[in-house]
UniProtKB/TrEMBL annotation:
Subcellular location: Cytoplasm, Cytoskeleton, Microtubule organizing center
Family named by the database record: Belongs to the MOZART1 family.
Keyword Translocase: no
Protein name per UniProt: Mitotic-spindle organizing protein 1-like
Superkingdom classification of source: Eukaryota
Chief place of localization: cytoplasm
GO biological process: gamma-tubulin complex localization; microtubule nucleation by interphase microtubule organizing center; mitotic spindle assembly
Keyword Cytoplasm attributed: yes
Gene Ontology cellular component annotations, sorted alphabetically: gamma-tubulin ring complex; interphase microtubule organizing center; spindle
A Pfam family recorded for this sequence: MOZART1
Keyword tags: Cytoplasm, Cytoskeleton
């Protein structure tokens, strides 16, 4: 029998419980990301600061994705009865 098994079992059960709590709170974290966050906190990272970093990364990622997505029919708008795409309003929305 592996002497570390009880510790591993407890760690796995703890992470499973944390994952359930994470899902109930709709954090959007997957198991790997949650495990990394736990490790960072165990190594002294401030949990509140870590949460702020994650939120900021999500905001920046969403902005980046929005700027890379070419306009679609759903994103077109009517101006004075004429249909215009977002590319007419902002250079980041031009299609290549």
């Amino acid at each position: 029998m592996d002497p570390n098994q009880p510790t591993n079992v407890v760690a796995t059960e703890t992470l499973d419980i944390l994952m359930e709590i994470s899902n109930l709170l709709n954090t959007g974290l997957d198991e790997e990301t949650l495990a990394l966050c736990v490790q960072l906190c165990e190594n002294g990272v401030n949990p509140e600061a870590l949460a702020e970093v994650i939120k900021e990364l999500r905001r920046e990622s969403a902005q980046y994705k929005n700027h890379l997505t070419p306009p679609t029919i759903a994103q077109s708008t009517k101006v004075d009865g004429a249909s215009q795409t977002l590319s007419n309003f902002h250079p980041l929305f031009t299609q290549y």
